[in-house]
Amino acid sequence: MKRETKKINVLGVIPARYASTRLPGKPLIKIGGKPMIQHVYERCKKAKLIDKVIVATDDKRIYYAVVKFGGNAAMTSSKHKSGTDRIGEVVNQRTGELVNLNIVVNIQGDEPFINPANIDKAIKPLLKDKTVNVSTLAFRIKDKKEINDPNVVKVIFDKDGDAIYFSRNPIPYDRDRKGKVNYYKHIGLYVYRKSYLQQLIKMKPSTLEQAEKLEQLRVLENGGKIKVVVTNVDSQSVDTKEDLRKLRK
Fold it and tell me: What are the residue ranges in the chain where pLDDT is below 70?
């Protein structure tokens, strides 16, 4: 296997599995004549702070689709319960090649129009502060229908921008119904320091993570911190056929 000639400090990994419960074969669904995974890959390549992008999959159909459009792909185990575990396998697979690797970005494979500037924005806290091990993105909700939508994950964070909790339920709860509460949608992109990622994948899936089906809760439940970067640019994920219809339109 050829060794990397370029120093790879920041690696972008897109976990993609075929067996989605609500939308099987999601990464290969065509949008504008291209499979969804290609849209995500091409957006990631436009991020200025990412040195290399790899699609991590457990399905040969996705693997060969990525290779066909000229992308980098890696086969991983089908036993992983989360995207974080899948990207962890890729990092461990490529340790011999990516000797300078310091930061790993987990980009969701179901956000075909992820903004490259948002990816860079999420990476910056780890470049500026060596004590930050994990960061993610949030967008202030403007459509009130999203507040009670369990497919839209909400996040609350403290005055320093560190996440307090993520939930599919509306948080915080506006008891007095005064309407002065700001709700923030979590954009599912995670930036990990490589050393912390390798610790995280050794931890067992946590109780809250399994209840909410939100992998980031493993970090919080084990005492870790997640820096939340607020962006003014939203990102639409594809979870249902209705989401797909809206994006195609």
Answer: 1-6, 20-22
Query: Which tokens is 232 given?
Result: 């003014």
Give residue 173's pLDDT: 92
The phi-psi region of residue 179 (left if phi > 0; otherwise alpha if psi is between -120 and 50; otherwise beta) is: left
- The structure tokens listed for 199 are 């610790």
> Can you tell me the distance from the alpha carbon of 175 to that of 187, in angstroms, rounded to the nearest whole number?
26
- The domain made up of 10-248 has a fold known as Spore Coat Polysaccharide Biosynthesis Protein SpsA; Chain A (3.90.550)
Return d(Cα 230, Cα 220) in angstroms, integer.
Answer: 19
Give 248: exposed, middle or buried? Use CB within 10 Å, 0-12, 13-18, 19+.
Answer: exposed
pLDDT digits (tens, 9 = 90+) for 132-162: 999 999 999 999 999 999 989 999 999 999 9
Are β-strands 154-157 and 163-167 bridged in parallel, bridged antiparallel, or unpaired? Answer: antiparallel
pTM of the full structure:
0.91
Diameter of the chain measured on Cα atoms: 62
